[in-house]
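To fix ideas, we reproduce below one chain and its tokenised fold.
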Amino acid sequence: MSATIEIPTPTTTAKFHFSLWVTDLNRTVAFYRVLFGQEPHKHYPDYAKFELAEPPVVLSFLPQPAPRGASLNHVGLRLPKSAGLVAIQKRLEQAGYSTIREDGVECCYALQTKFWVTDPDGVR
């Protein structure tokens, strides 16, 4: 009798993962649910996580104030076409979040169309 051991293979897409400290986990999840247009992969009283296929990113949240000296400037989603960006912006605005649009700006050594929105903890 022989047995086959199946070793899980890594996903074919690398994903960037980052985690944020937040003051109100449920309020933060509500914001990112609208931003991403999907439910979180995990949502517990002390932890929440979104796993996105496009863009390939894992974003988790821990409910407590940011430690002293936190230095996050902003978090961005890079999309292949501006139409996808506009759709996300409209979804956020329809849910009552304020955005600021910048079309064709030179930033980070590239010409970009972007919009800015701030999450419940002030992360741009």
The chain is about 20% helix and 30% strand. The radius of gyration is 17 Å. The first strand starts at residue 16 and ends at 22. The beta strands are 16-22, 42-44, 47-52, 57-63, 99-107, 110-117.
